[in-house]
Amino acid sequence: MDNLSQVLWREREMLEALAYRLEVERLVLASGRTRWLVNATRDIEDLIEDLRATEVLRAATADEAAAALGLTPNPSLAALAEAAPDPWSAILRDHREALIGLARDIAEASEDAKGLLTAGYRSARETLLAIGGTTSSSYTHAGTVVADAPRHHLVDRSL
Questions:
Q1: What is the pLDDT of residues 6-22, one digit of tens each?
Q2: DSSP the chain
């Protein structure tokens, strides 16, 4: 149980770092200083890669704890907390609640960043259209591009 708790602490720390990095990415997007967007995204991707390795370790450690408690492999954290003796039961419940809260924070930060990216894409597209470029508006079900009709712009050169 001690090993499981240590792995859960590590996972919580990594999820906290992920929430922070997503917030940094959101702030970069909101500021319009896209120069740093590649760095922010790379930081997130590196952390996610490390997090995946930690998740594998957590799954193996949880299976060991489940075997010690007489549970089947791949138990939920709630099932482990319910089967564990005190004080481990309370510790595992605390980990579970913290992980749920972090997952909620990460989902919200991801949605905010997605909204900002979508708005940035629309703004760039409108700018390209305004200067006379054409961009594809969508794709068909077969995957072919449906292009907007070219637009003609009148420029008042007397100004």
A1: 999 999 999 999 999 88
A2: -HHHHHHHHHHHHHHHHHHHHHHHHHHHHHHT-GGGHHHHHHHHHHHHHHHHHHHHHHHHHHHHHHHHHTPPSS--HHHHHHHSPTTHHHHHHHHHHHHHHHHHHHHHHHHHHHHHHHHHHHHHHHHHHHTT---EEEE-TTS-EEEPPP------TT-
